[in-house]
Q: What sequence folds into this?
C-alpha cells in the first residue's frame, strides 16, 4: 500500500473484507476508500457486506459506498450464465422488478469517485434506467441471442434447480427466506446516481443484451 492514497475495495463472492487490511491501508496513507457493496443487503440479511460497510465507515479514511442493483453481466459473465445456456433460470422472486445495472456504468462511477472530490462520506445506489422482472430480462436476452430461456419464479422452481445442482436443501431454504424478504420490500426504484456522477445515461438492459449476444458467452 506504500504510495497509495485512494483505494477501490471489493470483496470477492462470499469473502469478507479483512478489517486489518483496511486498517493497514489507512495507516499507510490511504485517504479515500470506494467500497463496492450491494442494494438490498438489509432486507436479505447480508452480514458480510453490512460488516464491510461498517469497516469502511469506521476506518478514519474518507469513504464512499456504492450499492448497485443486480449486474447485467451476471447473465453472460457471472453465475446466471450456465442457466441461460441451459435454457432455464429459477429465482424465487416472482414478478418482482429489479433495476439491473451495467458493470461498465458501475466502473465509470467508481473511476469518477476516485479521481474527483466532493463524494466523501456518501452512499450511492446505482441502477439501470428501468426496473425489469427476471422474466422481462430473460425475454430481452432471448430476443437478442435467439436462445429461448424459461424463467421459474416460485420457491419450488428454485428448490428443484438447486437440488439439481447438488446443493443442500437447508442452504436453499435459507436463501428462499432471504429472497422472500427482498420480495416483501417491493419493486426496485430507479435512481439517477449514474447520470449525476458520470454525466451520461445508464445503459438500457436491451443494449447490454445486444452487446453480450454479439460476444461468445451465449454461443454453443
A:
Amino acid at each position: 500500500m506504500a504510495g497509495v492514497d485512494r483505494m477501490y475495495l471489493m470483496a470477492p463472492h462470499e469473502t469478507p473484507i479483512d478489517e486489518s487490511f483496511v486498517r493497514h491501508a489507512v495507516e499507510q496513507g490511504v485517504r479515500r476508500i470506494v467500497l463496492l457493496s450491494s442494494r438490498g443487503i438489509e432486507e436479505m440479511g447480508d452480514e458480510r457486506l453490512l460488516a464491510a460497510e461498517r469497516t469502511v465507515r469506521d476506518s478514519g479514511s474518507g469513504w464512499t459506498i456504492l450499492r448497485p442493483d443486480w449486474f447485467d453481466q451476471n447473465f453472460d459473465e457471472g453465475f446466471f450464465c450456465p442457466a441461460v445456456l441451459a435454457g432455464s433460470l429459477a429465482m424465487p422472486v416472482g414478478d418482482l422488478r429489479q433495476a439491473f445495472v451495467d458493470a461498465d456504468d458501475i466502473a465509470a462511477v467508481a473511476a469518477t469517485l476516485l479521481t474527483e472530490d466532493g463524494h466523501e462520506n456518501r452512499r450511492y445506489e446505482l441502477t439501470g434506467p428501468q426496473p425489469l422482472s427476471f422474466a422481462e430480462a430473460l425475454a430481452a436476452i432471448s430476443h437478442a441471442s435467439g436462445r429461448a430461456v424459461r424463467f421459474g419464479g416460485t420457491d419450488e422452481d428454485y428448490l428443484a434447480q438447486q437440488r439439481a445442482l447438488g446443493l443442500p436443501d437447508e442452504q436453499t431454504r435459507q436463501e428462499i427466506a432471504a429472497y422472500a424478504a427482498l420480495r416483501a420490500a417491493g419493486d426496485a426504484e430507479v435512481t439517477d446516481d449514474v447520470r449525476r456522477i458520470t454525466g451520461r445515461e445508464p445503459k438500457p438492459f436491451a443494449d447490454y443484451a445486444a452487446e453480450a449476444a454479439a460476444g461468445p458467452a451465449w454461443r454453443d
